[in-house]
Write a structure and sequence with these properties.
Elements (H helix, E strand, L loop, with lengths): L2 E5 L4 H12 L3 E6 L12 E4 L5 H7 L6 E4 L7 H4 L5 H22 L4 E6 L29 H20 L3 E6 L2 E2 L12 H11 L5 E5 L5 E2 L2 E2 H13 L6 E3 L5 E2 H12 L4 E5 L13 H7 L7 H20 L1
Parallel strand pairs: 1-2, 1-4, 2-3, 4-5, 5-6, 6-11, 7-10, 8-13
Antiparallel strand pairs: 9-12
Helix pairs in contact: 1-7, 4-5, 6-8, 6-10, 8-10
Amino acid sequence: MKKALVCGAGGFIGGHLVKKLKADGYWVRAVDLKNNEYSKSPADEFIVGDLTDPTVVEKVCDLPFDELFQLAADMGGAGYIFTGENDANVMHNSATINLNIANVACKVGVKKIFYSSSACMYPAHNQEDPNNPNCQEDSAYPAAPDSEYGWEKLFSERLYLAYNRNYGLNVRIARFHNIFGIEGTWQGGKEKAPAAVCRKVAETPEGGTIEIWGDGLQTRSFLYIDECVEAVQRLMASDFTGPVNIGSDEMVTINQLAKMVMTVANKNLTIKNIPGPLGVKGRNSDNNLIQTKLGWKPSKPLTEGLAKTYTWIKQQLDNKQK
């Protein structure tokens, strides 16, 4: 039986990954600052602990795990990342976690480690044209991320690659592009665009108005959580280090995203564009490298994942009102 350690297991992607690993027959130890919010983790062990504390990392990573998945980070959506108010915490907390984990994983002889980077590390100047952003993996340098979150992700990529070169740490690095789905954050300021839009549409009565930050013409692509987990596991099973994009190449504007959710909800609403934190004007996953190296591409359209996510978020709202 393979043994896996999932760091950040109380979060959205980590929680789904633990479920998949257990379904695949792994023994799983999970660790996070908090338990999963929406369902009980099936992990064999769930340790609540702060990974910025090196003694906690030494405690949870005390075995030569077959696979270690490092998903823990101080993160959130545009309302958290792009205001500038959380920059010091984002950089300090996430970098400290990665420094601790890389060091201890080497000491105990972890066989393979996955690091979740982000599309936020790509240069902002390559993402100014909303219709033609460049997020090809080799476009990362000269580096110019649009946020401190992106700078920390880039630093930690280089950290793990340095440990790979100098100490033989067997790493796999993926750059996530806007992962969404059920059991993700959907309120409170840390939610990302699909969840925020689903919540707004669910809350608004027929004929009402929802607010969208910016002119709504900024573009993104969004990948459903099940597809993300599949791609992560495929990367871990390969001999390819990365970094490689994991995302969808079905690019939409945020206004289009809102209209897709309205269609799913069978509601006719008006969009009001207002000032707000935005990030880059365009971002889309370039999937050429992952298709070449791993033979992987998303198998489902965006609307399918939005339908599942909208239904789940509406249920959360209905439950709150009871």
